[in-house]
Amino acid sequence: MYRIVVLRRLALAAMLLAFCVVVFGAYVRLTAAGLGCPDWPGCYGHVTPAAAAAADAGTAAAPLHVGKAWREMIHRYAASTLGVLCLCIAALALRWRRHGDVPVALPLALVALVIFQGLLGMWTVTLLLKPLIVTLHLIFGLTTLSTLWWLWLTLRRRSSDPWSGTRSALGGGSTAALLRPAPQFLRRAALVGLIALILQIMLGGWTSTNYAAMACPDFPRCQASWWPHADFGEAFVLWRGLGINYEGGVLGSPARVAIHFTHRLGAVLATLALLFAAITTWRTRRESNSRFAAAATLAALVLQLCIGGSMVIRGFPLWLATAHNAGAALLLLATLALNRALRRA
């Protein structure tokens, strides 16, 4: 049992760090510090921005802004620490794999994810903040967070007494009701909600990396219209060649409006899908894990909607824009927990 406890604690620490890395990465992007250090993995050829400043390492083409450089390097230090934690989890899982209670596939998947994340981090800098790369960097950061969350839930279940919570969940009844999975339509509804949320997060990343957040400065309408003038053809071109510096964005206003407006439409669809899955789960399921996950999904959804609307109304303050990314991560974790709870047997 101690093996599961050790892995569970490491997974929790890594998950909390991954959450901080994702949110701080959004802060780096929102403060235009993504190219604070235009090389990789160092900063102007040095380990720290302080050393780069002492050596007067900036150039006319890429001047050194110490504040931006520190934000970028702190993000890299934290991401590197997360990578080390994931390697430790995988190493221990392989060492203890002969004991049937230790999962191996998820820790190995984490190693692959952090390696790919490192490559995306490098390409983010070397390809000058190309929107496709930066969006993928965000998506796979959330994928790493989600995998750690799933691993922690798995280890938590294996380390708990299989009979604990059963009688309280069922009001003292037998385990038969708990052992029955949720109806298929409910599991499908939760899966549809998860897919809709993932697509919405991808749209949010595309909105941020193309600097389209302020393309619709009013709410609930956009550009004082329910259907604004927008260039959808130009808005979703994924690849525009190499050698272009995307800091500040390269799209015209109609294309940015199209991106932002699509993100709002996606928010409506994702909200409806998640509301249906969570409310139906709460009304029809008696098992405590499912009801708790449904309540957490509803709470995270309401929080995210409030942040999104307030962000536009208040003129996109930095702290609310950063909180919007944190809210998306929390909503993703809650939705994953809902899907897992409905599929438990």
Q: Tell me, what's the shape? A: flat
Question: How many structural domains in the coordinates?
Answer: 2
The number of E-state strands comes to 0
State the low-pLDDT regions, or none.
Answer: 161-178
Mean pLDDT: 91
> What is the overall number of helices?
12
Give the topology string: H per helix, E per strand.
Answer: HHHHHHHHHHHH
Instruction: Evaluate the radius of gyration.
Output: 22 Å
Task: Report on the biggest sheet.
Answer: none
Percent of residues in beta strands: under 5%
Write down the oligomeric state: single chain
Structural class: mainly alpha
What percentage of residues falls in helices of 4 or more residues?
A: 55-70%
Task: Report the span from N to C terminus.
Answer: 22 Å
Structure description:
The radius of gyration is 22 Å and the shape is flat. It is built from twelve helices and no strands. The protein folds into two domains: 1-160; 176-345, no CATH class. It has 345 residues and is mainly α. It has helices at residues 2-30, 49-54, 66-95, 105-126, 131-159, 166-169, 176-179, 184-209, 232-235, 253-284, 288-313, 318-343. The longest helix has 32 residues, at 253-284.
Key traits:
345 residues; mainly alpha; 69% helix
Outline the fold blueprint.
Blueprint: H1 2-30, H2 49-54, H3 66-95, H4 105-126, H5 131-159, H6 166-169, H7 176-179, H8 184-209, H9 232-235, H10 253-284, H11 288-313, H12 318-343
